[in-house]
Write a structure and sequence with these properties.
Residues 56-76 have a biased composition (Acidic residues). By secondary structure, the protein is mainly alpha-helical. Among the domains are: 80-132; 176-200 and 225-283, Herpes Virus-1, CATH 3.30.40. The protein has helices spanning 3-25, 39-152, 158-200, 212-223, 251-259; strands at residues 239-242, 247-249, 275-278.
Length: 283
């Protein structure tokens, strides 16, 4: 580099001398060709350029390395994050499994305690029943012994009193049955008398020009509503219910009423009907 400026100075110094020589000789001379390039300077410039490129390459490499390092650090952070999440899920599953196991153990313990309590209650109840049975047996044996003593004792009047009491009870039952039968017969007779009295009531005479059949139809129509069965409202009343004595059913409805336990009630007073008696009307 020091040689290059010196050469340039020499060329510049030689150039005025040539010009003076040309001027003196008054001859025109072609300018000299440019000096050849200074090889050391070119080499130095190339070296500088290469060094600059190398430095740029190193900077780019450093930047790429930094980018890769950043990417690697982000990947590591993401991996650690996923690992933590997986660990949290694993712990949650383990905690849930532990809680389920504890709940199952508590249920099993509660069931076992309930079974033990039921067995203890059953044993206690059985023991109590056994004690009560023994006490009842003891009382029965004591009463039996006392009764045997009373029976075997001479002159005991209780046997005759018991016979008289049973006889009085039987007599009372018979008398009650007779009273009920008399009441039922009285009601039947009263119902039959009422039916006969209803038939004997005078009816409006038929029109002068009507025939006997028309008068019978008129008499039937005048009874309609009073002599109809209260259930079917169609057939004539023929039966009296016992014991209430209501004359209100036809033969078909009376049979159904007596035959069916669900319908065995008087439709008028709702009293239970024991039987039904047929009553014939007089003309």
């Amino acid at each position: 580099a020091a040689a290059a400026p010196a050469a340039e100075g020499e060329d510049e110094a030689a150039a005025p001398a040539d010009k003076d020589a040309n001027a003196e000789g008054e001859e025109e001379v072609a300018p000299p060709p440019p000096p050849p390039p200074d090889l050391p300077a070119v080499a130095a410039a190339k070296a500088v350029k290469a060094a600059q490129q190398a430095a740029d390459s190193e900077d780019e490499a450093d930047e790429a390395g930094e980018d890769e390092a950043v990417e690697e650090s982000e990947a590591e952070v993401e991996a650690r994050k996923r690992a933590k999440e997986e660990e949290a899920r694993k712990r949650a599953k383990e905690e849930e499994a532990r809680q389920r196991a504890e709940a199952r153990a508590r249920r099993e313990a509660a069931n076992e305690a309930r079974k033990l309590k039921e067995e203890a209650d059953a044993q206690l109840a059985a023991a109590r029943d056994m004690a009560e049975k023994r006490e009842a047996d003891a009382r029965f044996e004591a009463a039996k012994e006392a009764a045997e003593l009373e029976v075997t004792s001479p002159g005991a009047p209780w046997a005759e009193q018991l016979r008289l009491l049973r006889q009085a009870q039987e007599t009372a039952k018979v008398e009650a049955a007779k009273v009920e039968a008399a009441k039922a017969e009285a009601k039947v007779a009263e119902a039959a008398a009422a039916a006969v009295a209803a038939e004997a009531l005078p009816t409006a005479p038929p029109a002068g020009q009507r025939t006997k059949a028309k008068s019978a139809d008129a008499r039937k129509s005048s009874r309609k509503g009073e002599a109809e069965c209260v259930i079917c409202l169609d057939a004539e009343q023929t039966h009296v219910l016992i014991p209430c004595g209501h004359f209100c059913l036809c033969s078909v409805c009376a049979d159904k009423c007596i035959a069916s336990p669900a319908e065995q009630k008087c439709p008028v007073c709702r009293e239970v009907a024991i039987s039904a008696v047929r009553v014939w009307r007089t003309a």
